[in-house]
Backbone:
DNA sequence: GTAACTGTACTCGGATATTCCATGTCCGAGTAGGGTTGG
DNA sequence: CCAACCCTACTCGGACATGGAATATCCGAGTACAGTTAC
């Protein structure tokens, strides 16, 4: 019925978030994945794979050929952290409930199968809190916070990509 | 500096929570891991491994020898879901920050290294919401909710373990 | 001089190895209880 | 009959295989620009 675990959140999520911020700072031109990877010494082809997922999710535009690359498909205000997590990790519930109550000698007890599992409910409550927090925060918030913490970061990034 | 991902929450967490509830229902006597496993058709030895961690965390008492097994070391009110998650998964932050800012050509920029990563901060905020929800809920709450949903569950479990 | 064409270099995109961690298993250490034997 | 001893069975506990997913990589498809050539 329910399946509950935590799926691993790959480090690709962190990469993707950084790239979204960098793409915003870099400006409207498309940036090749290799160049984005070079900014943080990430494996270029693997980063490309993560950016593909963002593109499929409609968060980025992908442009082939010379002068191609990736660029933001929406404004930073329209991209929540939840969107990025879902794009990379998939829409599967982080906490899947196996409903192990349905296994074993007591599985046939009628009361079990028609009543939601209290443990799944409790874990889902916690997960929903996590999701709500992610959904509230956007790339624009990250950009703003970074701007306050290190005002020159945007200029440095833009310079690096521009040259 | 920081390392941020989501570590996988093993299904062992779900098993552990179910076992805590079952141990409460079963009464003060120790229950062998094999018998707990049989209740939900779980791999006995592997479940034992998870229960070991709960014992090391002080959530369960482990008793060797005949008539041995595991029993709750605290009252259900004193065991939060967070305690169980930490016991199984370890105390590592679920979201580890790799701080990829410290890599690559811009790593030497002084401003970067002394300022907290905005992305790590945002992700940690979400994770803290998750942890807070887990910390608020206890095994006693699960027991109470299960009792409301299926009043005979406790009796059935006790009977099964007693016989 | 202009325009069409061709070739090249560069980009994404999906199919393919590799590594690592959760999962699952096996055997050893320790213990409590019962049976046995000697007094 | 009683008590001390030993032996067996049962439990946890840590060390050892296995599988699957995340990680990393390679090669093919498509495209835009530049150079070339024909008119």
Residues:
């Amino acid at each position: 019925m329910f399946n509950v675990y935590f799926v691993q959140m790959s480090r690709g999520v962190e990469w993707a978030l950084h790239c979204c911020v960098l793409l915003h700072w870099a400006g409207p031109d498309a940036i090749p994945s290799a160049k984005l990877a070079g900014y943080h010494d990430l494996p270029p082809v693997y980063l490309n794979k993560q950016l593909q997922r963002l593109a499929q999710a409609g968060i980025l535009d992908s442009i082939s050929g010379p002068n191609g690359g990736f660029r933001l498909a929406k404004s930073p205000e329209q991209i929540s952290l939840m969107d990025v997590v879902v794009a990379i990790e998939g829409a599967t519930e982080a906490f899947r409930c196996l409903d192990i109550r349905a296994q074993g000698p007591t599985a046939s007890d009628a009361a079990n199968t028609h009543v939601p599992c209290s443990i799944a409910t409790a874990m889902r409550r916690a997960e929903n809190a996590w999701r709500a927090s992610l959904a509230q925060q956007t790339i624009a918030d990250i950009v703003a916070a970074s701007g306050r913490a290190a005002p020159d970061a945007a200029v440095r990034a833009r310079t690096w990509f521009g040259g």
